[in-house]
Amino acid sequence: MAALMAARRRRRQTTGGSIPGTSMTNPDYQALTLEGEDADSLITPGMAEESMSANVLMGTTPQPAECIKIGNMEKMMDSELKWSDRTVYLTRTELGLALPDAGSLKDVVLLHLIKNVAAHSFKDVGDSNSPSTTDLLKANSHAWGQLQTHTDGESKAILRVQTIAEESSGAERPYFFRTDSDATAKDWIEKIQSAADECKRALERRERNSIQRFQKMAHTCYVSSPFQNAVAVLISANFVINATQSEMHPQPGTTLDRVFSELDMVFTIIFAVELGINLMAHWFRPFWSDGWSVFDFIVVTVSLLALFFDSVPGLSTLRLMRAFRILRLFGRLSNLRQIINALTAAIVPVCNAFLIMGLVTSIYSILGVSFFKGSGDVGEELFGTFFRALFTMFQVCTGDGWSDDVARPLFRTEGGEIDAGVAVFFVSFHVIVSWTLLQVVVAVMLDNFTAASDEEKERVRHQEAQAEGTVVAMHVLDPLLAALAHFNTSADLTSRIRTLFKVLDVDDSESLSFDEMHCGFQKLRVRPKIVLTCDDYDEITENQRLTHKGEVRAREFDHIMRRQLKLYVQRQMSNAMSLAPSDGSYSGTIIFVLKLLTIEMDEISQHTTSHKGPPGGPGRGVDEMDNRGGGNNCGGEGMGG
Predict the structure, then answer these.
(1) pLDDT of residue 89
(2) Quick check: 625 and 616 in contact, CB under 8 A?
(3) Residue 121 to residues 135, 176, 316, 487, 540: CA-CA distances in angstroms?
(4) Antiparallel, parallel or unpaired: β 173-179 and 511-512
(5) 8 A C-beta contact, residue 55 and residue 104
(6) Rounded to the nearest 10 degrees, how much is the dihedral formed by the CA atoms of 96, 97, 100, 102?
């Protein structure tokens, strides 16, 4: 687990801790490495400008202290046996591949997905009757003939890393490396196999953990509607009983007093059990980062102390905390939670407004001491010291008898004349503080309340739309398109798409096969995880019309991503229409008009493209684009990227 935490820290270095990285392609591995991670820490639309880089999309190279072994090997890139130099980083969770002297990873092999590792020298491969030859080169029917051409008699060894079939993938994936000698290959195979076995054992230990299974059951039980409704009923019943006890106020030692005490004990125990389930279901960070859970913990803990240490002097007063139990209901009822959330969001701006009021009131208090301290008994009583003057000005601020009890007794001087300066002093204070600054406080609170109310209504509408099945279905690429959509100019979009293409093109062949796109999209640090199927591949490539010999080149990839962005915008507008409030506003109509304009522009663009030909080149037709002889098939077993 310490190694897993180190891997997360290593991925944070490039982004300053904002995007803890992972290249996970398996839910179990996510559970192993992302425990306690915040969903917002992954690639999100708001982080689009930082997310379109190789360091963030795939991750940075590990630090030497985190690696079991670091070395250089050649990696087989495609079916033509093209070899490329790679720096290999073996950690306790993954096998990272990077270009020499590069700071970002090019590809990642997760250790828990490794099936086996084998090393073979070239002279062993030359034996066509060897069983290992078939296993080693089954992905490449003409490999041996080209191996002899590419090695030129050098004494090197092939190292194969065979992975198991990943989720939603129908084929196992081999990775081929070339080392200087059999000894080097043997050292790599021992270390990779050992690290893979240890990673698998760690995952198995986690899956066998009975505490975690119980925690999952507790979470399912705690968040269920019947459980929350039952707790809300108990909180309300406890409040009614506390109010009844205060109304009747039974004498200590009487039967009625004992009944109320026993009921209080029962409710305290029930709430303690509920708190224990909450702790088990959301331990550790989710519980302590939730304000309502912390409030429950304080109230229940204080109630338990008052219950079991009632005879201790001073602790008996803690029983008064029972009255605060009803506040726990706010976190369970949406309307009450909306008000509390609005007040909580307004704390900082309201405190700033109060600070300005306090400063103005203090200034007037100092002036009041200077002006009225010697104005008879009234002046001495109201403005004799700073704190007396401060309280007097607070009374003026509230409007409670400030003219009759404070201002008018100070109007007349010793000669019986009216002092206009007194009127200016109090009226100016009342206008500045009571009429202006207090209204600012109310306005700030109202603004935050409106914002919180809108967010709550939006959430409720979204839940209702999901329940009714009216929300537009999410496309497989939407998690990535959400970040890609925040481009500034067309050139910026082109640059982002090109960066994404380079990240997915692990073999530097300037083209993407289905295997590369399928595995590459899964390894991007977006949530939900992108699992590209053959049907999805055919859809985005228009039944492979936008491919060349079965692979997508950079120009076609740019066309594909721009097309998917247009479709993403249309889906978002449809989604917004379904969530638009039905309160007589024109927001739904405006969104509908924008959607029609977008569709019209898209149709015009498609019509223009159909006359110019596909993006593969001027005048190229569908028949020529579909000439893919000898290329990789969608879903076929290919070489490791």
Answers:
(1) 94
(2) yes
(3) 14, 13, 81, 50, 42
(4) unpaired
(5) yes
(6) -60
pLDDT at 152: 44
Closest residue by Cα to residue 501 from 546, 566, 560: 560
Give me the pLDDT at residue 620, please.
43
- Structure token digits, residue 201: 């054992």
Tokens representing residue 559 in the block: 């066309």
- What pLDDT does residue 171 have? 52
pTM of structure: 0.51
Sequence-separated (6 or more) residues with CB below 8 Å from residue 478: 568, 571
On the CB side of 605, how many CA atoms lie within 13 Å of its CA?
12
* Segments of the chain with pLDDT less than 50: 1-50, 79-80, 121-153, 167-170, 469, 471-472, 617-631, 635-641
Residue 60 is given by DSSP the state B
| CA distance readout (Å), 378 to 206, 384, 450 | 77, 9, 45
Residue 464 has what pLDDT?
A: 67
**Residue 367 to residue 378: CA distance in whole angstroms:** 16
* Secondary structure percentages of the chain, helix, strand, coil, to 5: 60, 10, 30
Provide the pLDDT for residue 607. Answer: 66
Alpha-carbon distance values, 221 to 236, 280, 282, 323, 522 (Å): 21, 11, 12, 27, 32
**pLDDT value of position 635:** 44
d(CA 105, CA 345) in angstroms, rounded, equals: 41
Q: How many CB atoms lie within 10 A of CB 281?
A: 20
pLDDT at 153 (0 to 100): 46
Rounded CA gap, 93 and 8, in Å?
A: 11
Residue with structure tokens 């889906």?
571
